[in-house]
Amino acid sequence: MFKGILLNKNDDGTTRAELTQIDEANLPADGDVTIAVEYSTINYKDGLAITGKSPVVRKWPMVPGIDGAGEVIASTHASWKVGDQVVLNGWGVGEAHMGCLAERAKLKGDWLIPLPKGMSTRTAMSIGTAGYTAMLCSMALAEQGVKPTDGEILVTGASGGVGSVAIAILAARGYKVIASTGKLAEADYLKSLGAVDVMDRAELSAPGKAMQKERWAGVVDSVGSHTLVNAVAQCRYGATVAACGLAQGMDFPATVAPFILRGVKLIGVDSVMVPIERRIAAWSNLALEIKPETLDKITHEITLAQALEWAPKILAGAVKGRLVVNVRA
């Protein structure tokens, strides 16, 4: 038996989430690597799963937790042996396969990557899917030829997990980052991460013109909807937008004008099904580029029991930076 958060569906279709003891025999039979989870996180998707606000869970009962880091304690997979330290992000874990908000997780070895050298499991989860996604977005901008000398880079949803890490990465790479947030009281926090200026998200969140004054050389957007539309409409000729989220909405009420008149490129950034080679590249970059003092600024550590309390807060936009769950606490 081990401690974990377990989700069940009530008769009325609502979700019941509780911290309880789980029998190891109930872990997924198709997993070939069992890890002792040391740290996990609460991402937006985990908040949806725990609260039942969106039907992200596809199998019941379910252990949430799309991220995990810990030590291999059993393995029949050729790539992993007992004692290896590993990181898990995505692959439908916490949705269709029991996840990492528990002391044990039985996962497919093909989903795992080695914990980067010199990185602790806590640091890995301070980064988590949010930070890993931020790195994928930063890599996308660079791969499309966006250079620090090209102009300002907009980061939307700036005080959230993706936004916070994206600011730190891009600023360290020499880009001039403008942070868009609904929490102007966090301006000092965002500037401490490297943003040169902070703008109110209200400037982007309402319907706007199809073509607007050119400003952005690149955009990292975790918000979607009108915010993404306006960001695209304000892009300079040849700019690149990396879109990875839908905090405002998954609609995209835009026109093709910025794409065919200014050559703007809209790059979709997925974190769930990314091939292993690109995952390892992203995590290698994170290990080299993210400073421990930066992570200290953006990380708040909680326990498994507290995860239930914090899930609604992340959906309400009341969380700054990253939530790290100490599974053993």
Give a brief description.
The chain has helices at residues 44-51, 121-143, 161-172, 187-193, 202-205, 225-233, 257-261, 276-289, 292-298, 304-315, and strands at residues 2-9, 15-22, 33-41, 67-75, 85-89, 104-107, 113-114, 152-155, 176-181, 197-200, 216-221, 235-243, 265-268, 299-303, 322-326. By secondary structure, it is α/β, with parallel strands linked by helices.
Which architecture of the largest domain would the CATH scheme give at its second level?
Answer: Alpha-Beta Complex
What is the CATH T-level topology of the largest domain?
Answer: Quinone Oxidoreductase, Chain A, domain 1
CATH superfamily of the largest domain: Medium-chain alcohol dehydrogenases, catalytic domain
Q: Report the count of strand segments.
A: 15
Strand content: 25-35%
Low-confidence stretches: none
Shape: globular
Give the oligomeric state of the chains in this entry, treating copies of one chain as homo and distinct chains as hetero.
single chain
In whole angstroms, the N-to-C terminal distance is 16 Å
CATH class identity of the largest domain: Alpha Beta
Q: What is the ordering of alpha helices and beta strands?
A: EEEHEEEEHEHEHEHEHEHEHHEHE
Name the helicity range: 25-40%
Total domain count: 2
The secondary structure category is alpha/beta
